[in-house]
Design brief:
The structure holds two protein chains of two kinds.
Chain A: H1 4-9, E1 22-33, E2 36-48, E3 53-57, H2 64-71, E4 80-87, E5 90-91, H3 97-106, E6 107-110, H4 124-135, H5 140-153, H6 159-163, H7 172-185, E7 190-194, H8 202-218, E8 222-227, H9 230-236, E9 239-244, E10 247-253, H10 254-257, H11 264-272, H12 312-316, E11 322-324, E12 327-329, H13 334-337, H14 341-346
Parallel strand pairs in A: 3-8, 3-9, 6-7, 7-8
Antiparallel strand pairs in A: 1-2, 1-4, 4-5, 9-10, 10-12, 11-12
Helix pairs in contact in A: 4-5, 4-7, 5-7, 7-8
Chain B: E1 18-29, E2 32-43, E3 47-51, H1 58-66, E4 73-78, E5 81-82, H2 90-99, E6 100-103, H3 117-129, H4 133-146, H5 151-155, H6 163-176, E7 181-185, H7 193-209, E8 213-218, H8 221-227, E9 230-235, E10 238-244, H9 245-250, H10 255-262
Parallel strand pairs in B: 3-8, 3-9, 6-7, 7-8
Antiparallel strand pairs in B: 1-2, 1-4, 4-5, 9-10
Helix pairs in contact in B: 3-4, 3-6, 4-6
Chain lengths: 347, 286
Amino acid sequence: MSEPKAAAAVTPAAAAPGAALLDVDDLNVRLPIDGIHRPVLREVSFSLRPGEAFGLVGESGSGKSMTARAIDRLLPAGAQVTGSIRFDGQDVGALTGAGLRQYRGRVAMIFQDPRAHTNPVRRIGDFMTEALRTNMSVPGAEARARAVDMLGQVGIEDGERRLRQYPHQLSGGMLQRVMIATALLTQPRLLLADEPTTALDVTTQAEVMAILDDLRREFGLTMLFITHDLELAAAICDRTAVMYAGQIVEIRRSSLLHDDPLHPYTAALAGARPDIAQTAHRLRAIPGRPLSAFEAPQEECAFAPRCPHARDVCLAAVPDLLEVGDGLSRCARTHELRGKLQAVADA
Amino acid sequence: MPETTAPADRVPEANGPAALEVAGLRKEFGPLVAVDDVSFGIPEAGSLAIVGESGSGKTTIARMIVGLERPTRGTIMACGHDRSRPTRSARDRRRRGREVQIVFQDPYTSLDPRQSAEATIDEVLRLHHGWPADRRRARIAELIDLVGLDARQARALPRALSGGQRQRVAIARALAAEPRVLILDESVAALDVSIQAQVLNLLADIRDETRVSFVLISHDLAVVRQLTDEAIVLHRGTVVERGPTARVLDDPQDPYTQRLRASVPRPGWKPRRRALTDAGEERQAP
């Protein structure tokens, strides 16, 4: 099993079988905020195996969307980036012009609010076929035929009629299906899904997730799934990374994340959500508020000010993301706390 | 006053007279029936969840209760007063404000950007209670403390506050009128998980320490479980299921409630695809 640190040490030269499709190594991003460059991502390292669904979970300001934007080269102007992002062995940071356009065809992105990412005065068909026609020189008629076919795959039967409609004529759930179909049209290898179901009703979310899950298996897609919902990530991702204040604090097999967390923040996040199956007398709220990377302490554990387990050792230095069992955790006390986090939080 | 015929399957009045009683409520927008024959009651200090997805009519019900929409049919009684028709007198409007208050979903747009938390609460206290300045000051300090803000945050403008802090200001403002019924329209939906837990704990404290009744409007079944005793489930404007919250969530009877329950992600959850031929999926143009 190639864990991120291990995979990062040996740079995959080519897409050899078993090699990482995407390798993010020591990514640091600084953005100009109030005129000063401040950190938004710190030492982000992880790698995605081909065909894997990888979750990125965190609260506002944790850097999860910024990570996706860095991967898709969509960072705001003035961003200072260090570290490397390699896709299929290729240095993403070095891409320009045609190479970048081609890369974006292979790495597709879907967003939280499909209405904000469609042009209200352009028809669905125009929107769906644009990348095929302009970047891949597919003739218009063939592009439309492929779009209709792909709409069928996401459960939209009367595709011909839909292509003639405008975004406002579709519901949010339907429009998100159109976004998924559009993203898949260029036959990408990696799908970056940034909170794609957050704005949807819960029954619609279930349907859209089912479609994503089916299609990514059918097309052998690798998926980076970004969400604030730990339970949703746990349900559909093979592995999940938890982010806090611009850092990854834990990477773990999703099925273990909830019941056997390695990092106190993961445990706190799981404990703070109300349980649909029972009423708690009081929720185990985390004191304070989530901090952005630039607000959090820079020389010590970023979560320490809110952590019930913080001790002097946590304030001595920024902990490294270290292997613990079959996962990774950025906590100075992780071995001591192993297996106790859920129990302590429950008491 | 018109006679209201109470439906037989109404939520039972456990703690004496109903703080809020809604009967046969209907709202039409042109040809669209947004709310159809909805009835429920909430006892003093009770809590009711109105569960539903977008388009179910849950927010329309809240808007009718606070007087932002006028019902096509039906009655709304709060503390023994009918409020289903607009009132012309300012005195009656203020009385209605002391009966029912609402906290909206979006803490970013529901506060005046030029008013600090203190000034916001002070305005409500002056309007509803007419107290002298020193008594208002004392009450402001109490409310600020109750919702867990500090003195600096109390003097800050909304733009200097986080989403969770703004929602606390909105809750303090609603409580300043000393309402009998507090309507929470998706009031914790936009908050981060760790902040949401803080606000849910705060609301539970308020429920325990005051006799205020809660109407929680939410699509989040876990939040509903945490905060309410009774629940009704709305689907396309009609009530499809009602009962104690724990029973509705643990043993849903209506197929729609069952589907809603099955759609909540959990460990081992496998989302299933459904055919998209449902006419309800089409966005209904207003």
